[in-house]
Design brief:
This protein is α/β, with parallel strands linked by helices. It contains eight helices and seven strands; from the N terminus they run E-H-E-H-E-H-E-H-E-H-E-H-H-H-E. Bound molecules: nicotinamide-adenine-dinucleotide.
């Protein structure tokens, strides 16, 4: 059994927020278990994190939309390390189609990954946290769950709003178990993948017309808040959703 805290981060091997969270929690001396749909970068990131932590930070291929697979991976982590202390639900997917034209497939896939995936991971992490009477969960939502906009598509916005509600109820249920559950709603967080899919004007307009600080968001901006929320200094904070949007969508 490890004496370091065990933190599971989903979708940790992408281009952005997940990998930054995994690196931050490793820097916080947690043993980070990384999962992602794509195996590509996981082995490399796992090696990097293991070097920082000084103990193996394993990786698992995991489609969070597959409830049985989530049960199996979380069961294996608990068997191996005897604990799950921290869970960060970062996996997200979207396809922008207007409601009047959206396929059921798009709606379902988005809800399966963004909302049901978050539920499944919480479903199979919480019993271990309840047994330990301790734990912290952070769900990565989006300001799209607050905004009235056509920018993200209704499936994504609905799923991310659902993540906020799921966060509040799970927090209400589990505070007495020593478990805190919070969410983060990022605004635009730049990564190389987004640079490939959006034209330069998209970022320029965002900077000129939307951001209230003079730069785009960085994955580390979200990772820093995760680090705080899962730590002892946030001991009186649960059920909240915090924006990280450079002032694009302040929430009160
Ligand atoms: N980048 C932004 O501007 C932004 C803004 C608001 C919210 N978010 C949210 O932040 C989270 C991270 O986004 P990011 O843009 O930093 O990307 P990221 O690179 O951290 O995550 C994308 C990863 O999700 C993985 N993924 C996709 N489907 C999956 C599935 N079914 N199971 C497991 N993993 C899967 C991909 O393999 C990829 O590695 C997402 O939930 C996203 O909705 C991002």
């Amino acid at each position: 059994m490890s004496d370091k805290k065990i933190a599971i981060v989903t979708a940790a091997a992408g281009a952005g927020i997940g990998a930054a969270i995994a690196r931050q929690l490793a820097a916080d001396r947690m043993r980070v278990v990384i999962t992602d749909l794509h195996e590509g970068r996981m082995a490399k990131l796992s090696e990097e994190l293991s070097g920082v932590v000084g103990e193996e930070c394993p990786w698992f291929r995991l489609d969070v939309g597959d409830h049985a697979a989530v049960e199996s991976v979380f069961g294996e982590v608990a068997r191996r390390y005897g604990r799950i202390d921290v869970l960060v639900n970062n996996a997200g997917w979207s396809k922008i189609e207007p409601v009047a034209e959206m396929s059921l497939e798009t709606w379902q896939k988005c809800l399966d990954i963004d909302l049901t995936g978050t539920f499944s991971c919480m479903r199979f992490a919480l019993p271990h946290m309840i047994a330990a009477q301790s734990g912290a969960i952070v769900n990565i939502s989006s300001i799209s769950g607050w905004e009235m906009t056509t920018e993200h598509g209704a499936a994504y916005s609905a799923a991310k709003a659902g993540v906020m509600a799921l966060t509040r109820v799970a927090a209400a249920e589990n505070g007495k178990n020593g478990i805190r559950v919070n969410a983060i709603a990022p605004g635009l967080i730049y990564n190389d993948f987004l640079r490939r899919i959006y034209p330069d004007e998209f970022f320029d307009t965002y900077l000129e017309k939307k951001a209230r600080v003079n730069r785009l968001g960085r994955p580390e901006d979200v990772a820093h808040l995760v680090s705080f929320l899962v730590g002892d200094k946030a001991g009186y904070i649960t059920g909240e959703t915090y924006g990280v949007s450079g002032g694009v969508h302040p929430h009160a």
